[in-house]
Amino acid sequence: MPTASANIGVVGLAVMGSNLARNLASREGNTVAVLNRSRAKTDELVALHPEAGFVPTFSYEEFAASLQKPRTAIIMVKAGLGTDAVIDELVRVFEPGDIIVDGGNAYFPDTIRREQAVRETGINFVGAGISGGEEGALLGPSIMPGGSDESWVTLGPILTSIAAVAEGEPCVTHVGHGGAGHFVKMVHNGIEYADMQLIAEAYDLIRRGTGKTPAEIAEVFAEWNTGELESYLIEITAEVLRQIDAETGKPLVDVIVDQAGAKGTGAWTVQTALALGVPVSGIAEATFARSLSSHPEQRAVAAHLPGPEGEFAVDDADAFIEDVRLALYASKIVAYSQGFDEIRAGAVEYGWTIDLGAVSKIWRAGCIIRAQFLNRIAEAYAGEPDLPALLTAPYFAEALARGQAAWRRVVVAAAQAGIPAPAFSSSLSYYDGIRAERLPAALVQGQRDFFGAHTYRRIDKDGTFHTLWSGDRTEIPAVDTH
Ligand code: 6PG
Q1: Is residue 250 annotated as part of the catalytic site, yes or no?
Q2: Residues in the active site (predicted)?
Q3: Fewer Cβ neighbours under 10 Å: the N or C end of the chain?
């Protein structure tokens, strides 16, 4: 058996796991034990990176023996049944006070269940969202851990040592207890879906409205990346649009099949929001847009359905592009506002204390949605921690006021040209809905009361009312059902 020389261990050495292990090993004070289901991966990692000083182990017993107490292990396996199997093995060889961290994209109810089950053994279980893809895992991800305060004492310094840094602050915080970390990571991914879809709609509108090539549009995005839209996703969009396919010489984006994949985190965000009653319409439309794209059989038969006559061509390309930029920024504000609403509602539902300002700060670097914009969100929550809706914060209200006319022009242009812009238009509808003095929800309440006696409230007195709708009365009494 090895001596207990490692302060942290990683189980699962696929790309994310091995990169995270290398990141850990590269930081002062860390010695990393590694374990993988197949021996070959461990041997390969250790041979390729002698500088890391890994402690290779080949059984759970060896792995546990190589770790100092409290033992701390990060599981980096594909979310699902594999995670449960690894947890069972670790619980078998660990002792009370030790810490098991799941760094995968687990569904937060699974994390809640696992945390409760593992806690019975006296071992700590922490679900930690880790964002930033392969490069982030290696160089510095944004990390969203949940779990107990006790585990954070040991885990905090280790995770801080590997996290990305934004303006001198590490992109990791103890997000909240239980499944809070994976909940926040789930919403991060939902926002990621909305951000990506909005960018895709902006590209499509510019391409079809101005006739610019992907390479020319790449320059537009590169320019946008120097202003208020500066973000990782805008930056990589320019790179993707610039790429030429080596085989055909065409823009790569024209060679890629237009059916977007999804591993499920966007759908979880929407399902959870539906259950919580939080309208994350931008995220939902982004998720549905991927689904729509991925039904080629329906798209093939629907392709003959009529659209508007004539070609779509804007008169002033520069003015249109600026409108699209403003529409993108306004829609992005809505998507983030909705995402933060969902985190707040989740915290209430599950009894977590989540500091929304702290969440926005740890998303400023390392993660996929990292953006200049997150600084503005952090400022908004610093100014008003209980801000009821992010989009009402002064900075965002001003940006929406500045962009709303352009936003409307873009949505109108898209509708008239027959170009789908579900995320742009649903975000605008949300904006108009939330700022409306009066909504037709009153009529919906009337309908509900008519067919199901579901009752309604009145604007002029307290209580719950039901109207006797039947009969030929001209004056219908409202009966207080209390
Ligand atoms: C991240 C990413 C990461 C992964 C997504 C992709 O934060 O690093 O979100 O978790 O790339 O799960 O999700 P889809 O395959 O569903 O697009």
Answers
A1: no
A2: 185, 192
A3: C
**Looking at the DSSP assignment, which residues form a beta bridge with residue 7?**
none
User: For the segment 299-344, what is each residue's pLDDT rounded down to a tens digit?
Assistant: 999 999 999 998 899 999 999 999 999 999 999 999 999 999 999 9
Q: What pLDDT band is residue 3 in, cutting at 50, 70 and 90?
A: confident
Q: Which CATH number fits domain 8-174: 3.90.190.20, 3.40.50.720, 3.30.870.10, 3.40.50.150?
A: 3.40.50.720
Neighbours of 478 (CB within 10 A): 15
Q: Whose CA is nearest to atom 17 of ligand 1?
A: 262
Residue of 306, 256, 262 lying closest to 286 (CA atoms): 262
Q: Where exactly are the structural domains of the chain?
A: 8-174, 185-435, 440-477
pTM above 0.85, yes or no: yes
Using N-to-C axis directions, what is the helix angle for 317-350 and 180-210, rounded to 10°? Answer: 160
Q: Quick one: tokens of 96?
A: 């009370």
Confidence of residue 477 (pLDDT cuts 50, 70, 90): low
3-state secondary structure 332-394: HHHHHHHHHHHHHHHHHHHCCCCCHHHHHHHCCCCCCCCECHHHHHHHHHHHCCCCCCHHHCH
CATH class of the domain defined by 440-477: mainly alpha
Long-range contacts of 210-213 (CB under 8 A, 24+ apart): 210/313, 210/314, 210/317, 210/320, 210/321, 211/313, 212/317, 213/251
CA distances (Å), origin 90, targets 82, 158, 301? 12, 19, 52
Cis peptide before 296 (omega within 30 of 0): no
Going through 90-189 in order, the beta strands assigned E by DSSP cover: 99-102, 124-131, 142-145, 165-166, 169-170
Tell me whether residue 332 is one of the annotated catalytic residues: no
Q: Is the CB of 263 under 6 A from ligand 1?
A: yes
Helices 422-435 & 394-417 angle (0-180, nearest 10): 130
First to last CA, the chain: 73
C-alpha angle 325-330-334 in degrees, rounded to nearest 5: 145
Considering only CA atoms, which residue is closest to atom 6 of ligand 1? Answer: 263
How remote is the CA of residue 88 from the centroid of ligand 1, in Å? 26
